[in-house]
Design a protein that fits this description.
The protein has 7 helices and 7 strands, in the order H-H-E-H-E-H-E-H-E-H-E-H-E-E. It is an alpha/beta fold. The protein has a single domain, classed as 3-Layer(aba) Sandwich (Rossmann fold).
Length: 202
């Protein structure tokens, strides 16, 4: 059953704010507005990255970096984004369809360690994809996790957020928290959903 407990005045205000942002930025990734702003200034034309789970972020990223690997598990969605890449003439994306979770995760085996400037985790098996991303990042590279409030304990007011008393959502998420101890990070929230960014030490 769908819960409506989060429908209060603050949530309605935040949701309207997100809707207004999306109208002003129709091509922006489905990340928090603040994370959109951070990435707009952070990403550089020479950057290389990996995206777990495709969408509006795929074309948006491809227009701003030199090379992007993107992996998707849904065949119909894959065809839709593939068409958008073609329409925009974007040829710098290695776009992969992997229906099976193990094949999806194996994308990381094809990428050299410490070769990427960023990884965006926004698809299936996010805990395992997050762990697989860490060795792929260069020192100074960034790891972006969408909907991080669903998986990591926090103080967010966004719906379905985990409380400190809940702990991490899986053993793999607990391992992630252990591995990024000491990393600088920025946790952003729209009040509707959250996106976090972790900076790998040099």
């Amino acid at each position: 059953m769908r819960t409506v407990r989060h429908w209060n005045a603050r949530y309605v205000r935040d949701r309207l704010s997100v809707m207004a942002f999306e109208r002003r930025h129709p091509d922006a990734p489905w990340l928090t507005p603040l994370m959109f702003t951070i990435l707009t200034s952070w990403l550089k034309p020479g950057d290389r990255g990996l995206e777990w789970g495709s969408g509006r972020s795929t074309t948006w990223l491809a227009e701003r970096v030199s090379q992007l690997t993107s992996v998707e598990n849904d065949g119909a969605w894959y065809e839709r984004i593939k068409l958008k890449l073609h329409e925009k003439g974007l040829t710098n994306v290695d776009y992969c369809l992997r229906n099976d979770e193990s094949d999806y995760l194996c994308i990381s085996n094809q990428i050299e360690h410490e070769s990427l400037d960023f990884c965006l985790v926004d698809g299936i098996a996010r805990d395992l994809c997050t762990l697989a991303s860490i060795p792929l990042l260069k020192g100074g590279g960034i790891l972006i996790i969408d909907n991080c409030n669903w998986y990591l304990p926090c103080r967010s007011n966004s719906p379905n957020s985990r409380r400190e008393s809940d702990g991490a959502a899986s053993e793999a998420w607990s391992l992630f928290l252990d591995r990024v101890k000491g990393w600088r990070y920025v946790w952003t929230t729209s009040g509707v959903f959250d996106t976090g960014l972790w900076l790998k030490p040099m």
